Structures are given as structure tokens and as C-alpha cells.
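@channel anyone free to eyeball this complex?
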Amino acid sequence: MFHRSELQLNRDTARRFIPLMVAAMVYLATLALAGAVVVGATVDRWSEGLRGTLTVQLPGGRGDASVAETAARTDTAVSLLLETAGIATAQPVPASDLESLLEPWLGKGNLPADLPVPVLIDVTLDPGARIDLVALQRNLAGVVPGARVSDNGVYLERLVRLARSVQLVAGVVMLLVALAAVAIIVFATRAGLSMHRETIELLHLIGARDAYIARQFVTNALWHGLLGGIIGVVLAAATVAALGVIAGEVALPVAGLRLPEQLSISLVLWLAGGLLIPVVAGLVAMGTARLTVMRTLRQVL
Amino acid sequence: MFHRSELQLNRDTARRFIPLMVAAMVYLATLALAGAVVVGATVDRWSEGLRGTLTVQLPGGRGDASVAETAARTDTAVSLLLETAGIATAQPVPASDLESLLEPWLGKGNLPADLPVPVLIDVTLDPGARIDLVALQRNLAGVVPGARVSDNGVYLERLVRLARSVQLVAGVVMLLVALAAVAIIVFATRAGLSMHRETIELLHLIGARDAYIARQFVTNALWHGLLGGIIGVVLAAATVAALGVIAGEVALPVAGLRLPEQLSISLVLWLAGGLLIPVVAGLVAMGTARLTVMRTLRQVL
Amino acid sequence: MRANLAVQHSGERNGVVRFENVGVRYGSGPEILRDISFELEGGSFHFLTGPSGAGKTSLLKLMYLAQRPTRGLVRLFGRDVTVLKRPELPPLRRRIGVVFQDFRLINHLTALENVALPLRIAGAKKEQIEAHVTELLSWVGLSGQVNAKPPTLSDGEKQRVAIARAVIGRPSLLLADEPTGNIDLDQGLRILRLFEELNKIGTTVVIATHDRSLVSTFRRPELRLQGGDLTLHRPAPTGVDRLRRVDPLPGA
Amino acid sequence: MRANLAVQHSGERNGVVRFENVGVRYGSGPEILRDISFELEGGSFHFLTGPSGAGKTSLLKLMYLAQRPTRGLVRLFGRDVTVLKRPELPPLRRRIGVVFQDFRLINHLTALENVALPLRIAGAKKEQIEAHVTELLSWVGLSGQVNAKPPTLSDGEKQRVAIARAVIGRPSLLLADEPTGNIDLDQGLRILRLFEELNKIGTTVVIATHDRSLVSTFRRPELRLQGGDLTLHRPAPTGVDRLRRVDPLPGA
Ligand SMILES: Nc1ncnc2c1ncn2[C@@H]1O[C@H](COP(=O)(O)OP(=O)(O)OP(=O)(O)O)[C@@H](O)[C@H]1O
Ligand SMILES: Nc1ncnc2c1ncn2[C@@H]1O[C@H](COP(=O)(O)OP(=O)(O)OP(=O)(O)O)[C@@H](O)[C@H]1O
Ligand SMILES: [Mg+2]
Ligand SMILES: [Mg+2]
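replying in thread with the prediction:
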């Protein structure tokens, strides 16, 4: 019978907003976090595959006679490349690979034997090395006329920049959302203090310490934070899963962005986040409430 | 001096949450709406270009002698196509166009004259017509051996399905968000009624009608709806603009999805939405509050 | 049914309030009031007495339509309140002035605004209201606190604001619940004289009080509640000025 | 300064409450209390009287540390309250029992829980509390309403719960603001006898009231507030039982 608290904050209908508000904030924060994680993983995969690579293209020779000539030119180019500082490997792409690339355009089996298929050489650089592409192009063209160097990194760098700005936006969103959540708790606590001003005054007058009063707000805030955190994380997980299903069903045409796969990879991350985020929300709410109450109460007699 | 309302709902600190909650809902709804609009516009552009088209591919003939033969086969195929019900036009793609498509692979000027370049025929269908592709393929192969029909729509249809599901998700989000907003207002009104129970009872006892009491809630809700709507729309516009700038800077590589352009096209739409959404939010809030108050009051003496 | 109609047709003059076998019970508790039957004629003046918890406030609540009887019949101004429809309540309530035992002032409105509330709700014009209200407030001794809000008033001052609000609309029926509980004797007498003035111009008055000196001073019929039953007591035919005997201060 | 120290060292017995040239003013209004100086010795029993709005509640508020004086010195239990630090207030307040004029009960707690609150805050065990509280509630005539919540109590019942809460902790200083304003005479006398019992075991008692019959019945010194000034009046050496003269009902 003495378990009832004097303020009964959990019975204020208006206060039932708070877990929902916190849930909304946690939802946004979690979505932003998930977005950042997915984009980060995608960029990493792109980088692994493409960062630090070049492609060198040599003109193809026509007719059976030119097969030997092409091979010689290829060898010349490869050895020049391997001598260049910063280049790790140089590997000609097999002709069959190239032909399969052309097939959609020419039809299978339509490829004439004497098609002047160009030679492509995949070049990988030493980690961190930067190559003077203009000089390399000049040197190559000196030994093999018509040779061209194309830098895969240019296109990639743009994509990475996009990805990084998305991650930045996600980070800013998380920061704003965390601030908003703190503001909500401060606000809710102040509202609670003002709504229960009379009861709090009474408690003071019959000898209650600030800590006694603060405890009721702190417990309430912890609970609101936890509840809001759980609701928010569950909703966010459901949203991401739904997006994953939709995206997966149509096999998103954007290179390398395979949402469901990335998400299942980070299942552990999801579980950890699902536990951690509500706890963090609860603790932040608790600390905020305590600070707010103690500060506000210090101003009364 | 008599302008003060008896309930002074706008002075309840806890009620200051409400415009923020409404703003969050409007923000989400507006983002969903913007997403649906952008995706819709993109799909329309794709559809314009691709929907209702087929490509027919005839094998190319090798050597100068076969040029006349190729032209004859092309004519045969075109006339068969034009006789087929549901087909509007059939236009062979000029060889030069085709060669430019191959250039990236073979290098400029490397194209041998006797390359057996296939003939492509762009076919457009009558609006709304559906063609039996299998029958068409059989008929074509009967007159021109090796002819193949490829339906651009297959790939497109997947994309359109993705786009439509995105739009569906956006619509569901908008619906949920609208329901949530209504729930918030109902909840806020109930909370207000319970918080001011004593004052409301007093007003009743000295002869106030339900409508007199409801008016104060209705005014308050209208104001909260408008304010929340404005905040939400402004934030949403800012978010979309920010995304547009980021995406525009890196020239998003997804076919046809050019965010900033689409957004500036729908500037009028933005302005209309910016005015309409808060008004709708305000009116919905108002109606909801009135219904809630009148219903609740009817239960007291 | 016929009997009821007869009363209804007899008009308001006789029978502003009429109770027939009224019983009140809260939840599943005992009957607080049982088999209460009485009739207050228009222009009458009664005290309502009884020990704390006897049911005085409950009885008044039935009269100011804050509560319905558990059983029995309550008529106000000739109308059966148990069958009244919701839109019919406000006009009836506007004819009743109530001084609540716990004042029920609105904290963020000034004394002036609080007192003006019944007029405002009835749709009166600002200009008509203000002078009238100010005058009444000075009558109850609050001319200096016209713009003070209830939290800055003493309890006696709050009670007087509540009294002013109850009488501002010249009600046909005035119900006052312990209206002098927080007021000193002199002001209490002054307030009761105000009620008597209203009574003279036709207002039916019922005053719940536990203050015996008030009852004996004003020599009005007394409705006495005890153990759920109501009995009527008329003042003794000759009365000394009993108040005088209490007045002089012992230590003065 | 030296004089103050002397009083402080003299301990609590003489000088539980000591006011020196105390003035109180709300905002920019007039001084409600001015130049109030007095000392209440431990174990004394005083009435505090004065017309409505005289400043009785304001004076009590200074004593129960709800307000600081605008000027002057207030000492409680030998300590200057104006220089007390925040953590020093609760222990002092726990030695003071207050009956608030407006009760200040917590609506969602039962009568029992309301009365138990001071003990609970002071950290007492549940088991110790319950029997004690129940006994006190039956003493004030509320044995049937132990588990009722304030909104279901009559005003007199609420007042008695408030009184029980004030005395449950056997305070050193008991301040009661109009404690019988909503209670009938018999119960009022009973409550005052309860206060006298406490007084006998050492509690210093101050009772603000406008009920002259109470003052004349109990024949205790009277602090009278009028126009901001406080004067002390001792009861006349011989007293008739004035209450008796008022008691018989006129119409009975
Ligand atoms: N809402 C309620 N629910 C339950 N019991 C109630 C309720 N209101 C009143 N009571 C009980 O009914 C009885 C009569 O209450 P009422 O307020 O009418 O008494 P009263 O005569 O006005 O007393 P007082 O002089 O103390 O104001 C009391 O015992 C009270 O506890
Ligand atoms: N917070 C406040 N702000 C401004 N004025 C106040 C405040 N509290 C009290 N007063 C004024 O101070 C005066 C004294 O008030 P107080 O409550 O002390 O009177 P009281 O003697 O207890 O009267 P009562 O017998 O009516 O309870 C009153 O005129 C009141 O209006
Ligand atoms: Mg009562
Ligand atoms: Mg007072």
C-alpha cells in the first residue's frame, strides 16, 4: 500500500507522449545509423574492388596474322607497366572475357574471328601509391601506338564522395536527433515539475529532500527512455527490413548496393544496437531528468 | 481584460509538445510525398522513352556483297512488323548509331568495314496494345532466319515495379502518419480535458454549454496543427533541398534520376504543398479536437 | 404522474426545489441520504446544518445539478431533473448561484474575471459587466484586490470572490456551502445580509453551515441532516440577540 | 550580533520561534506584516487571530519555512532561517507539523497514505507506520475512511486528514491554520483537545483561527494581527464557560 509514489507521473495522460517522442527520435537516429552502416559497407566493397586499379587499352590487330603481333605488343606494354614505380600487377584480360562483354551487341556466335578486339590490361597499384597518369600514357603510347590509360578511380571517387556525404548527413541527423531527445526530456521534466508544483511544495514543506523528489522523475525518465528506445529500434528494424525486401525483390540495379545481404551481414550489429540503443536512451533520459530536477528545485525555497 | 480564456490551454507546458509531434508527422508525410512525386516523375520519364517499345535484331551479313541482302531482309522484317496488329511504327536504327555504340569497346575508327553489324529495328506499339511476343518471334524467324525480338519493357517493368512499391510505401507511410497525427490530437485533447477537469466542471456548473468549452480546444488544436504543419513542411523542404544538392553535385549515376531538376520542376507543387499541408493539418486537428471534446463531454452530467 | 404534473403547473413560486424520497449512495457504500422529501418555496431562506460528513454538500450537489440522485425524484423550477436532456441543463444552471465549499476559482484569472465568468458565459457585453462586478467586489471588501489572482489572495478573500461570483447573476436559487468558513464574524454577517437582500427580491436561499451562531443570529428555518435523515426546525418564536453574547473578546 | 548569539546559545526551550522586526511585503504592494517581534517559548500554546486578510497565513508561512521575511530576523529552534543552507531545511521542517488552511492532501493517495507521508519521507518502516496512522485516523473520527481518497471525502473529513498528517510525527512545533473552519463544533473541540495533549508533552502550538468561541473556550494567550501589527492578549483571569451559552439550538 505504500508503493504508490506521491507524484504518480506515469498516470499523467499528457506524459504518455514522451515515450512516443523518444521513440520517434530513436527511430530517426536508428534509420540514420543503419543508412550510414549500409552505405559504409557498400563503399568499402567498391573500394576493395576498384580503388587502386587502372585499365590500359591497346588497339586490337585485324586478321589471323596479327595475333602474334598483338601478343608482342601486349608483352611490351605489360613489362613497361611493371617497371613503373607504384604499379603492383599488370594482367591482360583474356580475350574470351572481352568477347562475352561484346555479345549483347553482336549476338552470340556472331563474333568474326578477325574482329579487331582491343586488348585490356588490368593494372593494380601498390597500396597508397599515386601514379602520374599523363606521364604513364605518354610512355605507353611511345612503345605501343594507340595505347590508352583509363582511371577507374575518377568515377569511384565521385561515388565515394557521395557516400561520405550521405554518411555525414546521417551523422548530423543522429546528433540533432540526440539533442532533440535531450530537449524533450528536459522539457517533459520541467512540465512535470510545473504540473506538480503544489505536490512538490507540499513534499518540501513536510521535509522531503530534493533527491527524494528527483527520484520519482528519474525513475519515470529511465522508463520512458527505455520504452521509447525499444519502440523506436523495433520500428526502425521493421522499416529497414521492409525496404530490404522491396529492394531485394527487384535486384536494385545500382552497382554493388545489395541491401538485404548487407543487412543480414550486420545482424549481430542489429542485435547489439537493439539492446544498446534503448539502454543509452534510458540512461540519457535519466541523467537529463536528474540534472533538470535538481537545478529547478534549487531555485525554490 | 476579458480576452483570457478560462482554460489557457496554450500555457500548459506539456502541451507545447503537440506542435512538435505534429511537425514530426508532417515532416515524415511530406518527405514520403516528395519521394513519391520524384519517383513518379522519374518513372514517367522512363516510361515515355521506353514503354511500348520493342527492339528487333536481325543478324548482320558479312562482306560488301551482303549489304543489299541485309537491306532486303530488313525490309521484309519491317513490313511484317507493320502488318502486325498493335504495332505503330518500325524503324531500322542507322548503322552509324550502332557503330557509335560499339566504339567504346573497339576504339574509334577501328571498326572493320566487313564487321557483321546486326540490324536493329526500333518498334513502337500502339498505346495500350499488348503484343504476343512469342508469336511475333516465330513469325519473324519464319521470314528472316535468326531474327530476335527483345522486350525493353522487361527490365523497365522491374524498375517500374520497384518505383511503384516505393510509391506504395510512401502512401502507406502517409496514411500511417496521418492516423498517428489524428491519434496525437485525440490524445492531446483527452489529456487537456482530464488536466482541466475541475475547471471544465466549474464552467458546466455555472451554465457553460459544451460548445463554449469545445471552442477553446478547437482554437488551440487549429493553431497547433497550423504551427506543426508549417514547421514540418519547412524542415522537409530543407531536407529535400539538402539531398538534392548532395545528389546533384555527384551527378547520380542511376538512369534518369536527376533529383534537383525534378525538384525545381515541381517548385509550384512545393509552394502549393507548403501552403496546403499546414492548412490541412490545422483543419484535421480542429475537427478531431471538436469531435473528441463533444464526445467526452457528453459522458459527464 | 398526475401529481407531478400538478406541481409542475403550479409554477415556480411554490416549489423552486422539490425532493421526493431521494436517496444518494456513492458506489457500493451506505446511503448518505435516504428518503429525503421536502419542498422549498420560491423566496424562502433556509439553513442546512449537520455534522461534518452528514451529507450537506451532497444534498446541495443534487440541487445544483452536479449529481443525480440514486433514487427518488428531484425537481428544480418545476422540472424533473432526472429526465432533462443535456442542452436543457445550461439555461437551468444559469438560474442557480453556487458558493462552493472549496471556492473553485480559476487561478489564472483575476478576481474581476472570476466574478464576471457567469455573465460572460451567459453572453453579456464586457462594458455591462465591468462596473457591476467592481461594485460587487467592493461590497465584499475586495476593492483593493480586483486584479489580484486567486493564488495571491488569502483564503477568506478567495471565499468572498466565490460569493461574489455566485450572486453576480442575481440567481433565482442561491446555494452556499459553508460560505463563512474562512471569514471572520463581521464579514460573515455582512455577507449574510447580502444574501438576505437577494432573498428580499425573490431569490430562494439555502446556506449549509456548521456555524451555530450564524443560525441562531439569523433566525431562519433550519434543515437539519443527521444520519441520512432530514428534519426541519423553525426558530424559537422569541429570540435574544445571541450574537451579542459571543461578541465581546475575553482578553480585550 | 552578540544578542543573537546569546539567544542561540540559550537553546530551544526558551525561544522555539523568535521574530525580530520582521516585515513581509508581496511584490511592490504594502507591507502585510510590519515590525513584528515576539518569541514563543517551547511548550507554549497560542491562538493567532485577526480579520480575513490580516496576514495570519503569511505569519505562519514564515514559521514553516515556506517564505522568507522581506526584512527582519526569524529564528526557529535557535537557528537564523535566513542563512540556512538548502540541505539544512528538511531536518528542520520535519520537526514542524502544519495544518494548511487549504488542506493540501494528495488526491491519488488514500487518507492512510496521506497521513503516513511525513513518516515515510523521514524514512520510517511500513510496519511501524500503519498501526499508528490507523489509530490516529480513528481518533479524528475517520476510522471508516482509512482507504478513501480525498476527492471522495467531505471537506470536514479532508481537514481532519490534514490535521492527522500534521500531528503524526509528534512535531516540536505545531502550526494550524484555521483547523476547524470546516468542522462542526463537537469535532472542533475534540481536535483542540488533541492539540492540548500534544502541547502537554512539549509541543509548541500556534493556531490561527477566526472562531472567537474557540478562543474564549480554551482561554489561551492570543496573538492578534490587525493592520500589520501584532499584539499579545492574555485571557481574562476568570472565564465563564462561554461555549455553553452558544451550544443549545434555538429551534430544537
Ligand atoms: N464522491 C464520493 N465518493 C464516495 N463518498 C463520498 C463522495 N462524496 C462524498 N462522500 C461521502 O459522503 C459523505 C457526505 O459527504 P458530504 O460532502 O456531503 O458531507 P458534508 O455534510 O458536506 O460534510 P462537511 O461538513 O465536512 O463538508 C461523507 O462521508 C463522504 O466521505
Ligand atoms: N502570494 C501573494 N502575493 C500577493 N499578495 C498576497 C500573497 N499572499 C497573500 N497576499 C495578501 O496578503 C494579505 C494577507 O494574506 P494572508 O493569507 O496572510 O491573510 P490571512 O490572515 O491568512 O487571511 P484569511 O483569514 O482570509 O486566511 C492578503 O491581503 C493577501 O491578499
Ligand atoms: Mg460539505
Ligand atoms: Mg489565511
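from a first look: The pocket of adenosine-5'-triphosphate (ligand 2) is lined by residues C 145, 152-157, 182; D 26, 32, 50, 52-58, 101, 210 (CB under 6 Å).
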